[in-house]
Amino acid sequence: MSILRFTLFSLFLSVAGFAHAQDVPDYGGVPDKLIQKVGEKDFKGMFKVMFSAAKNEQKSDTEMLDGFSKQLEEQLEDAGDFLDADLYKEERFGQRVSILNYVVNYSSKPVGVTIKMYKTRIGWVALNVMVKSDFDKFLNEMRGLPASK
Fold it and tell me: Could you tell me the pTM of the whole model?
């Protein structure tokens, strides 16, 4: 009887694991590429990944993107060298919208990164990437706590 119970339990775990694995979206590597660019502090490259993933036919405003890139570089100039990144929280809204929150670890301090993903007919694209150098504020937002003054 215990062998039958063990076999049924093992089968249940296998089926449950398979069903869960089928439910996890494949983002086509877009978040990994974006996090790598943030880690390298290559924000122009980050924007290129966003636009190439979106297969965006529109001409992007290079001057504006250069300005954003420079601001982000200045915010992270004291962060140190890239160590690694961890997915902190993933929120899914149906089958087509996800918000991914990462902790990007540098040698001097961590940084919060939020990526809003959308699944188009041709695949997943990043609609928005927010880099937050104020890590305490990022954590409070993730926990749903009010912003400190």
Answer: 0.77
